[in-house]
Amino acid sequence: MHLNTLRVLSSRYRHRLASTLSALAIGVALSGCASQNPPTSSTYSNADLNEQLVMATAWMQSAGEYQALSFQAFNVARFRLDQAIDARAAGDRPLAVIVDCDEAVIDNTPFQAWLIGRDEQYSSANWSAWVEDAQARALPGAKAFLDYAHSRGVEVFYVTNRKESGLAATMKNLKQLDFPWVDEQHMMLRTDASDKQPRREAVMATHDVALLVGDNLADFDSRYDADDVATRSAQVIQDRAQFGERYIVLPNPTYGGWEAALYEGDFSLSPQEKDQRRRAALRAWSGPEQTAP
């Protein structure tokens, strides 16, 4: 090949290579800018927020530690129930246990798992569809404890914030699990208000309540319905002697009054605002000390 021809080809190659490298540099720069800019409220969706459910839901569905905590809660409940039975005297009112349903004796984590990857949040419509499906399973240790209470003549009242419209489906679900005391007298679902105190007081008016079992602090006392973290924490400290004594708490890191407190009760916040509130609540390590080069 002629020398001049080689020079021309070499020049064209260098020009193409320079163009390619320039395009790559621009692409990397744009990519860097995109990764540094946080998503806007218009791009951060419920699907993004729901990704935060992955670890908590996986833990509840897979971790032996979660099983152990559930068994532990019901072991303590049985021990305390025995103490209450032994302390009874002739003429005492009937003994009862008040339990919440969701994440207290039955497991709804498949509903949480269904939300993951979907651009929608919890709603009355999608929750009602799950309730009607009647597919919740018993928590580890729950049935054994409820059966034991029944065997000792202790009544169980299911005080839940499932709506009255879901009564038939909820009873169907609990009967499928062969839970005791599943009848309209012992099923106390939400009517007008979410505050459980009137329903608890109705049971306490006719029965001696030995234990309350729940995953949410408001399952024990309406003072925990406060929409701020500090008030709830202060109330826990005040009631600390009750936990493991009369209040039996089941772990639930997926939802609850603790989440509402992060938003100050405002669930109308955008997905990005909810994410920001969650992150603002974190206490983070400052990181390792940086030494000068």
TrEMBL record:
Q: Extract the NCBIfam families matched here.
A: lipo_e_P4
PROSITE patterns the record matches: PROKAR_LIPOPROTEIN
Task: Tell me the domain of life.
Answer: Bacteria
Gene Ontology annotations for the cellular component aspect, listed alphabetically: cell outer membrane
Under which name does UniProt file this protein?
A: Lipoprotein E
Identify the keywords attached in UniProt to this record, alphabetized. Answer: Lipoprotein, Signal
Q: Which organism is it from?
A: Kushneria phyllosphaerae
> What gene is behind this protein?
hel_2
> What is the annotated signal peptide range for this record?
1-34
Pfam family of this protein, just one?
Acid_phosphat_B
Q: Which CDD domains match?
A: HAD_CAP
Instruction: Kindly give the InterPro entries that the UniProt entry links to this protein.
Output: Acid_phosphat_B-like, HAD-like_sf, HAD_sf, Lipo_e_P4
Annotated region (Disordered), positions in chain: 272-293
Source organism phylogeny: Bacteria, Pseudomonadati, Pseudomonadota, Gammaproteobacteria, Oceanospirillales
